[in-house]
Write a structure and sequence with these properties.
By secondary structure, the protein is of the alpha/beta class. It has two domains: 97 residues; 117 residues, 3-Layer(aba) Sandwich (Rossmann fold), CATH 3.40.50. The protein is built from twelve helices and eight strands. Strands 2-1-3-4 form a four-stranded parallel beta sheet. It is globular, with a radius of gyration of 17 Å. The relative contact order is 0.15.
Length: 221
């Protein structure tokens, strides 16, 4: 059994993405449990509230259900689990997990751009799994000018959106223009913070979370 940890932002701002990932798991016959009782504490950790983080960490360890693997679609949560919770089962990104359980599918006849979230890419070195998952679903991935370790931040995380809203908006708009120049049908990412910022900046280009694209592909299969 796996433990699906959606994370605060997905649960509160994008509940439909959480529902779609659960739908994917059921369709694939994966036994799972959802744990959403507590935050992973990444914001406390990253803003210097170490005592508060340790208290939250203790509670999370006590309440976490048994499982073989923790699966999350939030790079911030994933980073926190890998770096701060050696007592818990291994934590993996949804793209890493789905690559293990999804076979090649017929093509969706789409060309998309993929935006590398900072925490997932430069932070954790996970660049290939999301791209390979899209290709396995028959979706063509067109690389933006700045991608992988050279990818630009969308401006949605790291406190930028809250502290410097104008800069945050400018960064996301620049990223959208970069994707639009490729002539793709969609911009795909795999971070709720990136999804929010890029979606709000886009007037015409469709921005989707990786989970949404996978669910759509399996639905059409």
């Amino acid at each position: 059994m796996i433990i699906y940890f959606p994370g605060c932002t997905t649960s509160q701002r994008f509940p439909e993405i959480r529902e779609k990932f659960e739908k994917i798991l059921r369709k694939l016959g994966v036994e799972y449990r959802v744990f959403d009782e507590l935050c992973c504490g990444s914001v406390l950790r990253n803003t210097g509230f170490r005592d508060e983080f340790e208290e939250n960490r203790r509670k999370l360890i006590e309440k976490m259900p048994e499982g073989e693997l923790i699966v999350t679609g939030c790079p911030g949560c994933l980073s926190t689990f890998r770096e701060e919770f050696p007592e818990l089962p291994e934590a993996v990104h949804i793209s890493e997990f789905l690559l293990e359980v999804i076979d090649e599918r017929r093509g969706m006849n789409q060309r998309v751009a993929y935006h590398d979230p900072c925490h997932l890419g430069r932070g954790l070195g996970i660049y290939d799994a999301p791209r390979e998952l899209l290709r396995r679903l028959g979706i063509g991935v067109v690389e933006m000018e700045r991608s992988r370790e050279f990818s630009w931040c969308c401006g949605g995380g790291g406190g930028v959106r809250m502290s410097f809203p104008e800069l945050s908006k400018k960064l996301s708009e620049m990223r959208i223009r970069e994707a639009e120049n490729l002539g793709v049908s969609r911009l795909v990412t795999s971070c709720p913070f990136c999804l929010r910022n890029l979606s709000e900046a886009s007037e015409s280009l469709e921005v989707r979370d990786l989970i949404e694209v996978v669910e759509e592909a399996l639905e059409d299969d």
